[in-house]
């Protein structure tokens, strides 16, 4: 009875929705946000015009909202693009504000464009969101009475200031983010090998995968700017690539339930410190004199390989016109992008009409709420709408408290600093926390500085509730397929990556190019599985049957991860006394996984497949069998994974 009561009091979807991401507080981002947003307000107050300071602080907001960790070159491109897009949207909003016949088509058009350009990647998606947000905010600025060029000038001053704050340390920190990312890989290796139980080691393995993906992303992004000419980036990338044998051997050891020697763990820690400090790498520990098994031998050999480094070929930069052509091709062949754009455009149009009907002077927050919640590729629509509503209620309460306290002058500057730091904190922890801080921040920047009225607080609350209601009604409940998790196709794609890894990871690879192909196949498989986890985490916050059914898929994901680990364990033994499996046995494994992927795409039960009778591959066979059982799932309708695919795979490609 007590268990039932707990489930009713705190359903699974709500627990997942309110859960905070367990990541360290990004104090550097907090400090930059405070400087970017609070300093203009402080200078404006000191000079006798806090309203101008608020307008300049508004120009700094796109950079703060778009800020992310990463290499300086990557951040410069991301923040510069987002700021330029925000300025363009702000200008469009300024020149049409106060004229509904002009502003409504512009806002709706910008919403459609922002959704479509999201298909070009993460940076384009962020730029599209900022363009839409500041177009909407610009439409509300006509009440200030200032000329368009003056408002735009203040905005550009704030944007330039925030970019300076964000990138000022580039000159003396240079490659520090990339170096930290590579060092973090060795820290996670040591953590994984130090785990004392299976659950802890599996979590550590996920963290290692994330660390390697991050390191490769940062280094390859940096090199794409430099065309492979920068020696420091090349050295770091070679060092990261050379860690592959040690990573594979470590995963194999953990998968076998073995503990690594203490000197190996200490060496990984020392290597991390040396990379971070840009010092020579420590000498690897000597291999024990007594006979050791193939996995441990591969681990010691991997340590030696780290010190030698790799010599990767330079990466060719794809010309801009080819990248543009790829993006255009993704639009033509990607119906999900068009569905997202259509849904966003419809809801924004409804919001603009509702804003004309409500008895508030500046109801642009209705449209703003709709756009932020419905922005494509940002997770569950339901989850973001609920968190946005909760966060805004809290944020409006904070704004009311500021009014009740008669907040002005230096107190207002202090509050802006607190809210700015809260925005940076909420971005990495929880969307509801972000909404709770960004709401009073924008109220103080754009509303209270000019009105100082309690009516503004009430209007913002009503506007946000109306915006969330539009999203939940027309963008979720009434939108076709919105409650259907689009994850079955991603599961099949992950299986394709796993098939490629089995095909390349279980063959003897004596040559450097063959080893590199196997390493790339392993990274693609683990990255696909990591992305699959992220997709499921977005769906699991749904309270409908879709969310409950998505929970039933978790055993499948775990099963596929164990298949990948088992393949890695066999792969590291090849060439160290263990014979390579026959081509026939490998073909049986790949055929079984291909059948699993086909069953998901074709919405049918997976057929029984012959498996190799090979002791060396027994671990892989067992894990593939468990994956088959997990896909077939239990007989209960609400939990059967295959029934999830049958009902909820309308938009993904079919085999």
Keyphrases for this structure?
disordered N terminus; globular; disordered C terminus; 655 residues; mainly alpha; 29 helices; 3 domains
Word description of this protein:
Helix 12 runs antiparallel to helix 15, helix 19 (381-404) crosses helix 21 and helix 27 runs parallel beside helix 28. The chain folds into three domains: 17-172 and 334-477, no CATH class; 175-308, no CATH class; 488-647. The radius of gyration is 27 Å and the shape is globular. 48% of the residues are buried. It has helices at residues 2-9, 12-18, 27-46, 50-66, 72-96, 100-116, 122-139, 148-167, 170-173, 176-194, 198-226, 231-242, 244-255, 262-277, 294-308, 320-333, 335-357, 364-374, 381-404, 410-429, 431-448, 454-477, 488-505, 512-539, 545-552, 554-573, 583-602, 618-632, 641-647. It starts with a helix and ends in an 8-residue tail after the last helix. The protein is built from 29 helices and no strands. The protein has 655 residues and is mostly helical.
Helix content: over 70%
Helix/strand order: HHHHHHHHHHHHHHHHHHHHHHHHHHHHH
When the domains are counted, the total is 3
Radius of gyration computed on alpha carbons: 27 Å
Structural class: mainly alpha
Tally of contiguous helical segments = 29
Q: What would the principal axes of the Cα set say about the shape?
A: globular
**E-strand count:** 0
Report how far apart the termini are: 46 Å
Question: Low-confidence runs (pLDDT<50, min 5 residues)?
Answer: 1-9, 225-229, 634-655
Can you summarize the main beta sheet?
none
Provide mean pLDDT, rounded: 76
